[in-house]
Amino acid sequence: MSVSRNVSRNKMNKRSIIYASLVLLLLSCSDKTKDEVLNLVGEIRGKVYFIDEFGVVLGQDFESAKVTLEGAETFTTTTDFGDFVFKGIPTGIYNLTFEKPGFSSHRIEDYRVLGGEEPLYVVVTLDEHSKTRVSNLSLYYNYSTDAASWITVEGMFTHNAPFFRHYVNVVAFLSDSPDVSPEDYLQSSPTVLILMDGENFSTSISVSSAYFPSGSTVYAVMCGYARETFYDPEKGRFEYSGVGTPSNVASIQIP
User: Is 64 helix (H, G, I), strand (E, B) or coil?
Assistant: First the structure.
């Protein structure tokens, strides 16, 4: 899931500023005006675009994305044109989540709604899960330094790129467990290859000695992914949008 934080990195400071501003505003108002301020409502409008792994907008898939407004405990679905709207939203701070089967989800945190203002407008893109497939994955040891070991990754690609040869985003997920997966891994190694459908490939990646010292076994799977990567500080690793079906598990021992 990709995440956007709408205002400030420090949630507590931001909330404190907003609430303090509201308190000062209320203190300066009459009782009638206070009620009017508290009862002000806002509106959120927006559009969701759906994009495949090659950056092509999928117009035929605009409808039926679920948009949830956390904090108001309500949701809606997009129209045939990807539009959505929330009306009558009380002043406050909300989270927006966007979901559609077959696509990566997206989340906007700490979205401020101040009643009485013009409607807020949000534009979001959801990445289709990659349809690129990797098969016959194999690993071969090359050499090691104090910081890392280099291994060769080989396999075969199938994809539905719109051109004969195309840039393909792929990522290897590495672990010390044979249960390695895009959700459970120690290290990831993304790369971009120019490949034909059904073409064999060979590329080199480095594996960190901190995770895989001498004598350890590296287990890997490889997947296609969509356009975006982002660093998740809570997990301490990079995350990838639109990750496709993993390859077979390949392994190699570091001498």
Answer: coil
Residue 254: pLDDT over 80: yes
pLDDT of 220 above 80: yes
Domains of the chain: 2-127 (2.60.40.10), 133-253 (2.60.40.2060)
Angle at 107 between CA 39 and CA 82, to 5 degrees: 85
**pLDDT of amino acid 186:** 93
Q: How far apart are CA 130 and CA 63, in angstroms?
A: 20
pLDDT, residue 18, reads 47
CA distance 143 to 150: 5
Q: What mean pLDDT value characterizes the chain?
A: 83
Q: What are phi and psi of 22, to 5 degrees?
A: -65, -40
How far is C-alpha 142 from the geometric centre of its chain's CA atoms? 33
- Amino acid of residue 65: A
Contact 205, 220 (CB under 8 A): no
DSSP 74-133: EEEE--TTSEEEEEEEESEEEEEEEE-TTB--EEEEEEEE-TTSPPEEEEEEEEBPP--E
